[in-house]
Amino acid sequence: GTNPVDLDKVLSKISSFLLLRDAVVLIDEADVFLQERGTADVDRTAMVAVFLRQLEYFQEILFLTTNRVKQFDAAFQSRIHLSLRYGDLLRAEKEQLWRAFLERIGTAGFRLDKSSEQQSQTLSRRNLNGRQIKNIVELSVALAEEGGRGEALTYAHPVRTM
């Protein structure tokens, strides 16, 4: 929900439902709950307060993801038992991602120029994260398919999208 009352009801229902099932919860992009509170946005401040109260009594395992670690509300620090920070990808990891995304395209029936497979090493030199690599590959496929020409995906397609 986008208001504190709805959020409180939803979180209470989720907690009750999970209590009987030994489940794990993932809240992806939990930034709205984790960001530092201020006086400007009263509704968001109230939602953070509701979330903090619910979190205090939450018995199950909860994963929260965010890209805004530096903007955490201080009240969350004592309630989070373990924080994992993922640094930038190593070049070898980026190369693996390029290869994996390109292979996935090949297995989906899309024609892949052999030179583009070999270029994953060159592409991995760019300072990109996994989501950016995935988006570039998807956009590259769209470029290759553009106009119904059905051309094979080449190294030039990802380079054009960057």
What class, by secondary structure content? mainly alpha
**What's the order of the H and E elements?**
HEHHEHHHHHH
Identify the CATH architecture of the largest domain: 3-Layer(aba) Sandwich
CATH class of the largest domain: Alpha Beta
Here the CATH topology of the largest domain equals Rossmann fold
Hey, roughly how much beta strand do the residues contain? Answer: under 5%
Q: What overall geometry do the principal axes of the alpha carbons give?
A: elongated
Report the total helices: 9
Ranges with pLDDT <50 over ≥5 residues? none
Instruction: Please name the fourth-level CATH homologous superfamily of the largest domain.
Output: P-loop containing nucleotide triphosphate hydrolases
Helix content: 40-55%
What is the spatial order of strands in the main beta sheet?
A: 1-2
Number of strands: 2
Q: Quick check: average pLDDT?
A: 82
Sheet having the most strands: 2 strands, parallel
Please give the alpha-carbon distance between the first and last residues.
36 Å
Please compute the radius of gyration using only Cα atoms.
Answer: 22 Å
Organism: Mycena maculata
Protein name: ATPase AAA-type core domain-containing protein
GO molecular function: ATP binding; ATP hydrolysis activity
InterPro entries: ATPase_AAA_core, P-loop_NTPase
